Amino acid sequence: MRAQIGGTGAETATRYDFIRTDAFEWLASAPPPPASIHAVVTDPPYGLVEYTDAEQKKLRNGRGGVWRFPPSLDGHRRSPVPRFATLGNGDRERMRAFFSRFARLLLPVLVPGAHAFVATNPLVSHLVCGPMTEGGFEKRGELIRVVHTLRGGDRPKNAHREFAGVTVMPKSCFEPWGIFRKPCEGRVQDNLRKWRTGGLRRASPGAPFKDMVFSSPARGRERGMSSHPSLKPQAFLRQLVRASLPFGEGTILDPFAGSGSTIAAALAESLSGIGLERDEAYFAEGRKAIPLLAGLPGA
Ligand SMILES: C[S@@+](CC[C@H](N)C(=O)[O-])C[C@H]1O[C@@H](n2cnc3c(N)ncnc32)[C@H](O)[C@@H]1O
Please, which residues bridge with residue 67 across strands? Predict the structure, then answer.
């Protein structure tokens, strides 16, 4: 199923496609360059198990499985978070295979010099980044999203009193995003001229794009626009989509689009985007959420 909404920005023609499909199937039949993708900004299901049908059923029933339901705070319900510490060896092997397949199918669809920003997590980032580079991408750095999550910082389970001065894992204060690039054709300047990709757009002429971004979780009005448990905030995503296209030209892909927040950010920045989402309920919600999220005032 396809939600296709075309729009024309003030100066740039912008349009987006939001498609209900499996990302791997779509990538396998997507056209090669030049009719293809110039950047990727995505928040994949990096633990994999959390977005299986079985785990989604438990999440929607409000209990059990890999999803943790944090207690509400000041009367506000907080979003559930997946537990990555419970992943076993088999899960880790499946993740490697998932990202190897992803890299293999994505690379041919991108123009040379295209950047890919891929969200990950401190516990599993090696299982995302290793297969991406083995699959032909250059690693161009990591972006640190400074965000206070509900992960880590706990005392040993059932022995809190005995080990009151111990924490099992650091309290997580950041979310790493891998920054990858498809190798350029020739020098960066050649690639920029021919493909309009290869570099990142500056925040302003005097300020390069920086690899640390302070960002709170989506809250308030924005949080109310989608119930997706992994909704990323517009103020953060808009910086990424803007940086991903050095001249603001081309198409941004989010193969694991969830509520379509990346596509909404692209729209807000007058950029074109394609979002893919497999889950029927998230897709239906995303169709409504994209225009609302895109309409939020700028940060
Ligand atoms: C971490 S969430 C992305 C949430 C998104 N950042 C947002 O702000 O709404 C990952 C999404 O990928 C979807 N997904 C998982 N496997 C997929 C696949 N093979 N093809 C397309 N979507 C998939 C899941 O249903 C889930 O909604």
Answer: 82
pLDDT digits (tens, 9 = 90+) for 32-90: 777 789 999 999 997 666 777 777 777 777 776 776 766 665 555 666 766 666 678 88
Residue 266: inside a domain, yes or no?
A: yes
Specify the number of domains making up the chain: 1
Q: Is residue 248 part of a domain?
A: yes
Categorize the per-residue pLDDT at 6 as very low, low, confident or very high, splitting at 50, 70 and 90.
Answer: very low
| Distance (Å, whole) CA 262 – CA 284 | 16
- To test the pocket of ligand 1, the residue of 278, 285, 288, 292 to mutate (highest count of ligand atoms within 8 Å of its CB) is 278
Domain range enclosing 216 = 14-65+89-149+173-287
Higher pLDDT, 50 or 115: 115
Report whether residue 277 contacts ligand 1, using a CB cutoff of 6 Å.
yes
pTM, entire model:
0.90
Question: Does the Cβ of 117 fall within 6 Å of ligand 1?
Answer: no
- Asked if residue 25 has its Cβ within 6 Å of ligand 1, the reply is no
Does some domain include residue 79? no
For residue 71, tell me if it sits in a domain.
Answer: no
User: Which CATH number characterizes residue 273's domain?
Assistant: 3.40.50.150
Above pLDDT 70, what percent of the chain? 87
